[in-house]
């Protein structure tokens, strides 16, 4: 009996291996793992069903090539029953996961970090009494020695301001002008003493000459200083 093409052959096609219904894996992983290419039928022109790249990228984005090759080397010697058990038995999967070298390394690093963190916490707790003592000492210094030092600093700053004020150009000009007027008044007083006959001519010349020299010296200095300040 003749067989029509596509009748019996299509029925004899093997179906893709379905995943266990009691698998504890997420649906995205199960659908990604169970997807197989389908044979095109005679009555349709459908293409192969390929897993989406986004599904693979989500599951492999955090796995380096070296780690992936190590995982593949661990799984390639497993039988089909063992692989099925990994999909359905969470304890078997957990045991395999903990036996992988990257997981062992991660656990070891985690344990080391936890141990170092606990050690730092213990050291900090041991230093707490010393910190409290130092804090109390700082408070005492702030209320006693620091207050005295600040008061002394304010006094020195006040004296500094007074000194700068006394030696400012305006202050020096004022003092020089007062000294100039004083020399002029003293020379006039000596001149009145001569007119009143209180001193002789020789003493008058000596005193008057000295006072007038001082007056003109101060006057010239005042003029030069005033010119340089204004310019």
UniProtKB/TrEMBL annotation:
Stored InterPro entries: ESCRT_assembly_dom (IPR037202), Helix_hairpin_bin_sf (IPR029012), Mod_r (IPR009851)
Region entry Disordered, spans: 1-64
Low complexity bias locations: 26-51
Annotated GO CC locations: ESCRT I complex
Organism lineage string: Eukaryota, Viridiplantae, Streptophyta, Embryophyta, Tracheophyta
Compartment annotation: Endosome
Protein name from the UniProt record: VPS37 C-terminal domain-containing protein
Protein keywords: Endosome, Protein transport, Transport
Biological process terms in GO annotation: protein targeting to membrane; protein targeting to vacuole; ubiquitin-dependent protein catabolic process via the multivesicular body sorting pathway
Domain VPS37 C-terminal per the UniProt entry, residue ranges: 150-231
Family: Belongs to the VPS37 family.
């Amino acid at each position: 009996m003749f067989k029509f093409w596509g009748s019996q052959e299509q029925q004899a096609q093997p179906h893709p291996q379905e995943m266990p219904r009691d698998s504890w894996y997420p649906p995205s992983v199960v659908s990604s793992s169970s997807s197989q290419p389908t044979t095109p039928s005679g009555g349709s022109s459908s293409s192969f069903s390929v897993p989406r790249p986004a599904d693979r990228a989500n599951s492999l984005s955090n796995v380096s090539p070296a780690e992936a090759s190590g995982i593949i080397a661990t799984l390639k010697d497993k039988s089909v029953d063992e692989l099925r058990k990994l999909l359905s038995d969470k304890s078997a999967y957990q045991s395999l996961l903990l036996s992988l070298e990257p997981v062992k390394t991660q656990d070891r690093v985690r344990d080391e970090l936890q141990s170092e963190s606990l050690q730092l916490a213990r050291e900090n707790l041991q230093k707490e009494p010393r910190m409290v003592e130092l804090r109390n000492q700082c408070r005492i210094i702030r209320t006693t020695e620091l207050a005295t030092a600040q008061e002394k600093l304010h006094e020195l700053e006040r004296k500094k301001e007074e000194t700068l004020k006394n030696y400012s150009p305006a202050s020096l000009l004022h003092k020089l002008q007062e000294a100039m007027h004083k020399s002029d008044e003293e020379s006039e007083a000596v001149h009145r003493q001569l007119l009143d006959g209180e001193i002789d001519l020789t003493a008058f010349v000596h005193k008057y000459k000295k006072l007038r020299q001082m007056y003109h010296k101060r006057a010239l200095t005042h003029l030069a200083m005033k010119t340089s300040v204004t310019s």
